[in-house]
Amino acid sequence: MAKLRLLKTGHGDLTLAEWDKQRPDTVETAAALFTEHVTPGRLAFRLDGPGQTRVIKEFDAAAPEILIVPAVQGG
Fold it and tell me: Which of 15, 16, 22, 42 is most buried, judged by most C-beta within 10 A?
């Protein structure tokens, strides 16, 4: 099953959802959680394996894993 995870600053990560492309109900739930958690100040990455990541703007049911992270802030 594919995973949607949220990186929590200083607290590791949290699995928000798992989905199976063959089960539309799980895809719908994961897509809704993606939309809920990708807010201004956060980025989402599709993780396809070592060195194979890319920023995504919309939920991608074909992704093996999606990680939502807080945007890096400098100062």
Answer: 16
Residues 22 and 56: their CA atoms lie apart, in Å, by: 22
Distance between CA atoms of residues 53 and 67, nearest Å: 10
Q: What is the CA radius of gyration of the chain?
A: 12
Are residues 17 and 32 in contact, defined by beta-carbon separation less than 8 angstroms? no
| Residue 65: predicted pLDDT | 97
Instruction: Give the position of tokens 């990560």.
Output: 13
Q: Domain containing 60 — which CATH number?
A: 3.10.20
pTM of the full structure:
0.90
Count of the separate structural domains present in the chain: 1
